[in-house]
Amino acid sequence: MNEIVLTERLKGDFKSLPVTIQKKLKKQVKFLAENPKHRSLQIHRIEGTRYWEFYVDIAYRCVFRQEGDIYYLLAVGPHKIIDEFSRK
Known about the structure:
Elements: E1 3-6, H1 8-16, H2 19-34, E2 44-45, E3 52-55, E4 60-67, E5 70-78, H3 81-86
Parallel strand pairs: 1-5
Antiparallel strand pairs: 2-3, 3-4, 4-5
């Protein structure tokens, strides 16, 4: 199983999410730990960066960085959160 590291930023973002999205994120993080190739994650690189994203649902994304079997979850929020990381 892969190791999941929650950053302080992600923890703060999580608290501000609607409860339904919090539940969906927990489910997706479980998939990430057990099987990063799970279809519902739809993982892909944020173009031109070292960051990756996965779908929480149709409107929410989680941004992460991977080092081997360790996934650092950096932020979660509406799709526009990707813009913040595409400039880094």
